[in-house]
């Protein structure tokens, strides 16, 4: 039955499998099934479109399935294009903000930041080859006798050639990201080339670290090898989100979720699969153009690259270092999530009371002014709305405010939030008497690395009280 947010109930005997296809807002979802039917004892083995299913379209656009006794379903979320009304409206606003005539043209202008990011991706191979050649030069300091051992035992110099080849392959991905962004943002090759010439003529070089971090987020967010990093936080947040909004039949209200600092958006897509209307937000243009690439390349395992060749430390084997990683690990329904680019504290000034949930995931410690984040979260939430937080308190290099956890709780409560009880599956209580829990979460991108970077990430649910 249609539940208002494309949720479907399949009746199996006396049981009900709810939320089986809870994100069915795209007509491109593919369902293959093998079923025993109530009125037929024969197995419908291979034909998923079988008139014995008795599928009746409803005026709402959903479907009603009668008398299915036993069903085995594989649900694959299809590659829905980002072409909904919400997507088109936001794209129009974004292109307006991207115009050179919008605001003051300086290094903070969104078009300037976009061109900087495109410059970085365009020069990925060049910047990493400079480092590789530096390592080659350092290898010359090894004695002839020592080199003989290294070449005989591990063919060390061959690693330089291998990595050079893989860097070139990675540049192919980076160039595809650039080409996709030029088309999406309506930027000409001539404009980008002029920007690069002028930038390099002034003595500046293309950014390297931000490009590498964005590429590694394909691993963290959209590769099978990133599951270990995603699971602790995602499980806690998504299960809590599902508990806060149990399935309500006969309602057409779709809860709205905002996720600032979303990176490459995987958490937002997982929330959308639960049936929420999701908006994600990201400041970094390096992340944004990588996400735009995902929106256009949605097929499972359609892309492959070599994310770990830019650093030779902490590898158990050379094969680990040069191994390929494919993404995305699931088909992407790009129609289910809208990205709003820009500064979280300024991009939603007209969004008072718009959202039912704000999820800050590895985000609040990125603030220049932490209290401004609190202001914005409070502004965006409707009365009774929920703020879910999961992440560390690793402040940056120049924050205006650096609060300890107990201070955050006090300040947030003064805004009119009430911290709610949460499940112990999200960790142990950090502050006695306060509903804040700590859970270890890894943040390192490489699941085979010989090092581990992890945080005691803090989780809470705070509800905005009615005035």
Indicate the topology:
Layout: E1 10-12, E2 15-17, E3 30-37, E4 40-44, E5 55-57, E6 63-65, E7 68-76, H1 85-98, H2 110-122, H3 124-139, H4 144-154, H5 156-184, H6 189-201, H7 209-222, H8 227-244, E8 256-260, H9 266-273, E9 277-282, H10 285-296, E10 303-305, H11 318-321, E11 325-327, E12 337-341, E13 355-361, H12 370-380, E14 381-391, H13 405-414, E15 417-419, E16 428-429, E17 437-442, E18 454-464
Parallel strand pairs: 8-9, 8-13, 9-12, 13-14
Antiparallel strand pairs: 1-2, 3-4, 3-7, 5-6, 10-11, 14-18, 15-18, 16-17, 17-18
Helix pairs in contact: 3-5, 5-10
Relevant terms:
nine-stranded mixed sheet; three-stranded antiparallel sheet; 13 helices; 21% strand; 467 residues; disordered N terminus; alpha+beta; single chain
Mean pLDDT: 86
Radius of gyration: 25 Å
Number of strands: 18
The quaternary state of the protein chains shown equals single chain
Rounded to the nearest angstrom, the distance between the terminal CA atoms is 37 Å
Which overall shape is indicated by the principal axes computed on the Cα atoms? globular
Largest sheet: 9 strands, mixed
- Number of continuous helical runs: 13
User: Helix- and strand-based class?
Assistant: alpha+beta
Uncertain regions: pLDDT < 50 for 5+ in a row? Answer: 1-66, 68-79
Helix content: 25-40%
Strand content: 15-25%
Describe the structure.
- This protein is of the alpha+beta class and 467 residues long.
- Helices cover 37% and strands 21% of the residues.
- The chain is built from 13 helices and 18 strands.
- The protein has helices at residues 85-98, 110-122, 124-139, 144-154, 156-184, 189-201, 209-222, 227-244, 266-273, 285-296, 318-321, 370-380, 405-414, and strands at 10-12, 15-17, 30-37, 40-44, 55-57, 63-65, 68-76, 256-260, 277-282, 303-305, 325-327, 337-341, 355-361, 381-391, 417-419, 428-429, 437-442, 454-464.
- The strands form 5 sheets. Strands 8, 9, 12, 13, 14, 15, 16, 17 and 18 form a 9-stranded mixed β-sheet that branches. A 3-stranded antiparallel β-sheet has the order 4-3-7, with no helix packed on it. A two-stranded antiparallel ribbon has the order 1-2.
- A hairpin with a 2-residue loop joins strand 3 (30-37) and strand 4 (40-44).
- Helix 3 (124-139) runs antiparallel to helix 5 (156-184) and helix 5 packs across helix 10.
- Residues 1-66 and 68-79 have low confidence and may be disordered.
